[in-house]
Design a protein that fits this description.
By secondary structure, the protein is α+β, with helices and mostly antiparallel strands. Helices cover about 15% and strands about 20% of the residues. It has 6 helices and 9 strands. Strands 1, 2, 5, 8 and 9 form a 5-stranded mixed β-sheet that branches. It has a 4-stranded antiparallel β-sheet with strand order 4-3-6-7.
Length: about 300
Amino acid sequence: MSTHPQHESGPEGHQPHPDHDRGLEFDLSTMLSRRSLGLVLGAGGAAAALAACTPGGTGSASQPASTASTTAASAPASSSASASASATPTPTLTRAIAECGVEIPQETAGPYPGDGSNGPNVLEASGVVRKDISSSFGTASATAEGVPLTFTLTLLDNANGCTPMAGAAVYAWHCDRDGKYSMYDSSLNNENYLRGVQEADANGQVTFTSIFPGAYSGRWPHIHFEVFESMNNATAAGQVLAVSQIALTQAACDDVYATAGYEKSIANVRRTTLQSDNVFGDDGGIYQLATMTGSAAAGYTAGLNVTL
């Protein structure tokens, strides 16, 4: 896979650790096969995978998102679970391991990583290790408002037979429903919400509870994340194994952005597609498009396979 260029404006974040070579010349059947490798798949078949790969084909705001998306990843064990603790692999994890092989594309961390690479460093702050990232911590007190979103990443080690990467750590962050990033926007300089670190459990899974991010001009709705070899590396802002992004489905975005509070996102998301996005556009996000289920009323869940 080719490393995606640093397209987002602003200072660059951590540089990706490895370089990959991934061609784009493959036919539809190959595309569907690789699509399934890059995601945590549920019970949906090839038609559902194709619909998820095509932003224009996932439905409108009036269409129930659960019919336009595949089943989200199963929730992992408690976020406080030890990496060495025993765990029974879920059917989703078992299938993910069997189909593992396509490594997650490397992406820019963007201009607002908060990892010390361009100024603010939330990773060394006490309290950053947490599952619920919707509120600020430490001396900050604000809570991000929006539709609830729970997202799970399953980390797999491609070099070791796609075994779950128990004990690895993930730092995840994203904008609020107004498209603003804590620690960087002038109105949020003293806040640190929508940022957090989790340690992968025995199934290689990390789960965060948050809010559905808004869409800002020039980007498809997304979530940033960095993967570290261990919790110690993460909280010390050590070497990053992978930097990438999760793309959210159009069906979910259409549903959420039709609700109060997300008015700014409606026009922004209409100006960008997965194919035209300056990060996901080279392959339409097929390796990073989350499987999603839920509704704006009940909240959404999302899942993504992250093969390293």
